[in-house]
Design a protein that fits this description.
Number of strands: 28
Shape: globular
Distance between the termini: 53 Å
Largest sheet: 8 strands, mixed
Bound molecules: flavin-adenine dinucleotide
CATH superfamily of the domain at 5-79 and 105-172 and 192-235 and 359-435 and 447-462: FAD/NAD(P)-binding domain
Radius of gyration: 27 Å
């Protein structure tokens, strides 16, 4: 065994789907050493998930590739509802906006998963200067943990033995219906246990490597190997409801084929229409006629994020080799009646069984984490799988970066499970309700227990808020200063910005640069680069002398030897590389000059260059982009102001009053989990280029 290649890395990511890539994106952006392996030899080229929700688009924007998404994808505006009339023919019975108006500056778009993975991969390449690459055809074989090293943050307690597969056969999923790419895998994905047991144990040779890791993230999908190694279950159930998916160009006289639509037919089942890029359309089609096998013990149905074992199925396992595009089209034609329906240019198809399952645990030892489909699976129609999976690692990535760089205590990693398990459970409850309403027959004279179509429409409308990802609300913790039980002081603080929810992501509105009058969305001034932000809403400092004095005092505090910014910034790092202070005032922009603001609020670098992009006017008229009033938008009184502490993932941690009391609050907040920095480090803590905004 002595010849076995051995290496070390800070973070090993297993699985390069959306969750794994998002984790890698954060680590590349923040300059942390990582590796990412995937058992498949190629990325995906067709099919799988396609919907990008508002919050995901905000995150893409914050990493710098939101424009690629908006440019290339299909944009949803309207959602239409169809159900049977008295004669049993389907008719349109309602329209709603697809995304809730005003919930975000970005609305739901659709694009196939392969493109989405490509944008993230390009970002990883850029930020890691080509170092961070997905190592494909690489399979983990064994994982062990040295428990004696768990509490040593500099140690590598997790060892993973990986094997480089032969790219031409071992790493290519074997499919049924090989003519068209599809999601029906015979083994490898659909039946990973079989695949592992078929692998010859053999001697360790030069295809093997032992990777010693500080942390491991299992992003290896619904059949997660990492989850199984940790002995973590998936809890929930799987129904007998089977749906087919087609990506194709439709030939039809159905009028809403280019609108997102939900169709309930009288007796033939339901359809969800997802109009896609390049004139493609995705249909989710309820399959009435499903080929089944006699054996009822276990479903091997592959494909779809709910493609997990169907224990509890009473009617026999689905025979996935008999799921064909023709069968799915036949089911669709019945539902579309009296409209005609046929297809051309079939791009991808699959079938899946509806189920909702979630793991009771998302981590072990605070060293190994699971994310995405590895810990929650559900039906795909609300377009949540890929989005929630990426948001899992968007939550985890910056925390790992902070701990690996020695900026924060490992305790912050505990908030990952606490915050994301709640989101997963909410998602499962949401999907459970919606998918059953979607699969149910419409209520009528005969079918009195059926689904009320008005209720269904309302459920969708309400669900759109949740599905957008913008109302995720993290629970109280060391990172979230809010009280489960009423606390007078915190209630008072919360009212200082009455439209902002502590625990939720900060929404964005327009502000104007004090230096050059250019309008920006505030969020575009807060990219995902691993930094904390303290937003200094200093109020109307031009007219209110008390506020002007408070602002001057705050600047003096920032200039003092020990303050909450300098305390956690490595000695040799730029002053704003860990915590950045941004000031948004409420005065007439023309009544103030840049130089009226103390220099500590727009500090100079070591070459004496000023940072002009830290002072913003929150109220006023732009020359070409309408008016700004971010104070009104956030519910902040211009004569009181406040300071808002923002996590690196854009969630609000704390709201405090201006002045000494607020400063003390922020000091106490950071003191619970940040590590005071006293040493000159030999690594570039500011990686990667968190620098000048312009
Ligand atoms: P995945 O995207 O599943 O990525 C997991 C990655 O891990 C894969 O690249 C895989 O090759 C790799 N991997 C797995 N096991 C190992 C291992 N042992 N070692 C190394 N690497 C491993 N969502 C929708 O919204 N709509 C849909 O229609 C839809 N259809 C789907 C069809 C299929 C066939 C699948 C698999 C998923 C589908 N989904 C759909 C779900 C959506 O794609 C997922 O929710 C989303 O991709 C989850 O991201 P993830 O990164 O957690 O997992």
């Amino acid at each position: 065994q002595s010849n076995l290649k051995t290496s070390e890395t800070d973070v090993l990511i297993i699985g390069a789907g959306p969750a794994g890539l998002m984790a890698a994106c954060w680590l590349a952006r923040t300059g942390v050493l990582f590796r990412i392996v995937d058992k498949r030899s190629t990325k995906i080229f067709a099919g799988q998930a396609d919907g990008l929700q508002s919050r995901t688009l905000e995150v893409f924007q914050s990493f710098g590739f939101g424009d690629r998404a908006r440019k290339n994808a299909n944009h949803f505006q309207e959602m239409c509802f169809w159900s049977p009339n008295e004669s049993g023919d389907i008719v349109r019975n309602g329209r709603i906006p697809d995304s809730v108006p005003g919930i975000s500056r970005f609305q739901q778009i659709v694009m196939h998963q392969g493109n989405i993975e490509e944008w993230i991969t390009d970002s990883i390449t850029k930020w890691s200067q080509g170092q961070g690459k997905v190592e494909r055809a690489t399979l983990p074989l064994k994982m062990s943990v040295d428990e004696s090293l768990i509490n040593d943050t500099s140690a590598y307690p997790v060892s993973v033995l990986v094997k480089k597969l032969n790219e031409d056969d071992e790493a290519v999923p074997e499919q049924y219906g090989a003519k068209v790419t599809n999601g029906l895998y015979r083994q490898f994905d659909g039946d990973q246990d079989q695949f592992y047991s078929d692998l010859q144990d053999g001697l360790l040779d030069d295809t093997h490597e032992l990777i010693k890791c500080k942390y491991v993230i299992g992003c290896d999908g619904a059949h997660s190997w990492v989850r199984k190694q940790l002995g973590i279950d998936m809890i929930g159930d799987t129904t007998d409801l089977v749906w087919g998916v087609l990506d194709m160009v439709p030939l039809t006289n159905f009028p809403d084929i280019r609108n997102r639509s939900a169709i309930h037919s009288k007796d033939a089942g339901s359809i969800m229409i997802i109009p896609r890029e390049r004139d493609l359309v995705r249909l989710y089609i309820q399959l009435k006629e499903v080929p089944r096998m006699k054996d009822t013990s276990k479903s091997e149905f592959g494909g779809g994020d709910a493609a997990v074992s169907a224990k509890g199925s009473t009617t026999g396992r689905v025979d996935r080799s008999k799921i064909t595009p023709e069968l799915i089209v036949k089911n669709a034609q019945e539902i579309f009646k009296p409209y005609t329906f046929d297809i051309t240019d079939l791009d991808w198809f699959t079938g899946y069984q509806i189920g909702q399952r979630v793991s009771p645990q998302f981590q072990a030892y605070n060293r190994i984490f699971i994310a995405g489909d590895a810990c929650h699976t559900h039906s795909p129609k609300a377009g949540q799988g890929m989005n929630v999976s990426m948001m899992d690692t968007y939550n985890l990535g910056w925390k790992l970066a902070h701990v690996c760089k020695g900026l924060a205590k490992p305790e912050i990693l505990e908030t990952y499970e606490a915050e994301r398990i709640q989101v997963a459970r909410d998602l499962i409850a949401f999907d459970h309700k919606l998918s059953r309403m979607f699969s149910g027959k419409p209520k009528d004279e005969v079918n009195k227990d059926g689904v009320d179509m008005l209720e269904f429409k309302e459920a969708f409308k309400k669900g759109a808020e949740f599905a957008s990802g913008t109302i995720v609300d993290y629970i109280p913790s060391i990172l979230e200063i809010k009280e489960a039980t009423p606390d007078v002081e915190i209630q008072y603080y919360t009212k200082l910005a009455s439209n902002i929810g502590i625990g939720r992501r900060l929404d964005s509105s327009q502000v104007m640069s004090q230096a050059d009058a250019r309008p920006y969305h505030l969020a575009d001034r807060i990219p995902s680069d691993g930094r904390w932000r303290v937003l200094n809403f200093c109020g109307d400092v031009a007219k209110n002398a008390e506020l002007a004095a408070a602002n001057a005092d705050f600047a003096k505090y920032l200039e003092s030897k020990v303050n909450f910014v300098s305390n956690y910034t490595p000695v040799n790092a730029r002053v704003d590389s860990v915590i950045e202070v941004l000031t948004v005032h409420a005065s007439d922009r023309h009544s103030l000059e840049m130089h009226d603001f103390p220099q500590a609020l727009w500090p100079k670098d070591s070459h004496g260059r000023s940072d002009y992009w830290k002072i913003w006017a929150g109220i006023g008229s732009t020359f070409h982009n309408g008016d700004c009033d971010i104070y009104k938008f956030f519910g902040i009184d211009t004569n009181k102001g406040c300071q808002i502490v923002l996590r690196p993932d854009g969630h609000v941690s704390h709201i405090v009053p201006l002045g000494a009391e607020g400063i003390k609050e922020i000091e106490q907040f950071f003191a619970t989990f940040m590590i005071p920095q006293t040493k000159v480090l030999d690594i570039d803590i500011t990686a990667n280029d968190t620098g000048r905004f312009s």
